[in-house]
Amino acid sequence: SGYGSSVSGGNLNIASNNQSSVSGGVENIASGNVSSVSGGRYNEASGNYSVISGGSQRTVSGIYDWRAGSLFETQ
Fold this sequence. Notes:
This protein is mostly beta strands. The protein has one domain (6-63). The chain is built from no helices and nine strands. The chain has strands spanning 6-8, 14-15, 21-23, 29-30, 36-38, 44-45, 51-53, 59-60, 66-67. A five-stranded parallel β-sheet has the order 1-3-5-7-9, with no helix packed on it. Strands 2-4-6-8 form a four-stranded parallel β-sheet, with no helix packed on it.
């Protein structure tokens, strides 16, 4: 719902900030500016320029944070 935001496929995904994007997956949220979630499920990228690449139940909330590891990680 943000300027330049996008959701590509998947189910119940939300891209709610400027230039945020979600590519596939289930119930993923990209709410930071220029944040991105690529697949997986129940992930949330809420920091500016934060990125999550797949996985499950992971959160990144800091600026320039990223996650490409395993389950239940929070930063």
